[in-house]
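User: Run a structure prediction on this.
Assistant: Running it now.
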Amino acid sequence: MTMTMSKIDKDADQIDHKTCRYICDAVGERLQQSMRPEPALSSRLQQLLDEMQRREGDRH
């Protein structure tokens, strides 16, 4: 009998996929609103990233 009650308790704590997705989306929207945009990369760092991407493209 204890096992059955335990299973019922666990099932009652679960939420459906649609509700879970709604909660995740709402949290994501609030995080986006509260987070500051990242500053632009320095020109040197951008040059290095561009060079890295160029080299990776050359290898493929």
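The CA atoms of residues 3 and 9 lie 10 Å apart.
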